[in-house]
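ARCHIVE CARD
Drawer: 12
Card no.: 0347
Subject: one protein chain, sequence and derived structure
Cross-reference: see card 0346
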Amino acid sequence: MNERDDDFDRAIACGLLPSSPIIPPDDLPNEQAALEKTHSPSGTSSHSDQQVPENRLRTGGSHPSEYSLSDSEEYEATSAPDALVQKLATTKRLKTESIHELRRFSKASPRDRDMMMFASIMSIHDKLNTAEKAWSPSPDHLLTIRKYSIAILLSTKSSGFKVGARQGVADLLRKMGGGGLPDDWETCPAKLNRVSKAISAALTIFRSEMKAKVAYSKEVKTNIAELTDDILAPAHNLKPTAELWARMALVRGMFKDDVEDSKFWDNVDTKMKDMREEAKKSNPTDVNAEKRTLHRMFVKGLEFDYKQYGNPASGGSTLPTPDSQLDQWQITVEETSAAIAGNDSEAPRGSRRRKRTRNTAS
């Protein structure tokens, strides 16, 4: 099958051509011979009595035939009434421009219709051959997105592990010059959609990896330094800090040995939100006092983890890195997270559902 045959098949599939066979000009002599036989003096039928089947009418070609209609007669015989045009426009859900084209087609001569039909087929052919391949992130892009997603999830300045995470990754990509993504990744809706999906996938995958490592740490009783180092293993130039230890201790303390718990990270984010609100309620006018109160809450959880799984200081583990020794990459990550921290517009939906359920029950 040649390229033109492919185009005809695709045009038929799209409803642009009828699926019934069209008699090519080369077959017309046989049709003409059969008609002439019945028209001959020895035949039983006269020309006036013989009705030419509708699907045998010639619509053009170089073979002369006395049974061919003239252009004007054939135009009259095949012209579509406006009611049919309206019906087709409705059933095919045509756009206004297409309806005008269909009406123009219905009033054209057969020869003009052939040209219009062929032009439409060639237009489809050109579009199929020149259609731009849909863009998708390359493997390098996906690695960059994973790197940034891990960094945001392990930031100690974020509001949680789901709240604001996707926005944080997008902001970090923007701050780092796109991370190798196309310049129009934000302005092109299709590209932005694919990047957003890649970010969501990367966040989900790493959260699952963290949950699996937390589950294993509880099983083998590793201390918080070992757990944090294990979680940081795939991260790019991120160092463990005392704040990150405290966050990981909170995560481990809330884990209930169910890696399939789909609401786990929602619950962790809700817990962190409650801690912030409690600290603010205790210090409504003093921001520094509010931060100190929140810090003590995290320290309390960390000390409880020491009792459960051992104190890293007594086990020879590497101590946390002071904030003053963090490199510029980690500082940029923390600044990006801090810029969107406290934005609870993406509060876990699960917690809201449970609250409404309790109110209804009461």
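Annotation on reverse: The two ends are 72 Å apart (CA to CA). The first helix runs from residue 3 to 13.
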